[in-house]
Design goal:
79 residues; mainly beta; PH-domain like; 4-stranded antiparallel sheet; two-stranded antiparallel ribbon; 1 helix; 6 strands; 5% helix; 49% strand; Sin1_PH_dom; SIN1-type PH domain-containing protein; phosphatidylinositol-4,5-bisphosphate binding; PH-like_dom_sf
Length: 79
């Protein structure tokens, strides 16, 4: 799985989806892993913050999708 950022650079990721959250973890390769100025960081989004997910282009075994999420508010993070 790859993530395409705003400047259209592709980063290979592991995508974890459960009932509670979506986790996106970059796959670190040994050669040139930290060479570029942009590095994808591991992130986790609670399912209640996922606003939309839409499948896009399908090419063979690869599928592009769009994931839109909202940032948690202060009341979401406090007990």
């Amino acid at each position: 799985v790859y993530i395409i950022n705003k400047v259209r650079a592709k980063t290979e990721i592991q995508l974890g989806i459960s009932c509670e959250k979506i986790e996106i973890d970059p796959v670190i390769t040994g050669k040139g892993a930290g060479r570029f100025w942009h590095r994808q960081r591991a992130v986790s989004y609670p399912m209640e913050n996922i606003a939309w997910c839409e499948l896009g282009e399908v090419k063979g075994s690869k599928t592009t999708f769009t994931l839109i999420y909202t940032q948690p508010t202060i009341s979401d993070t406090q007990p």
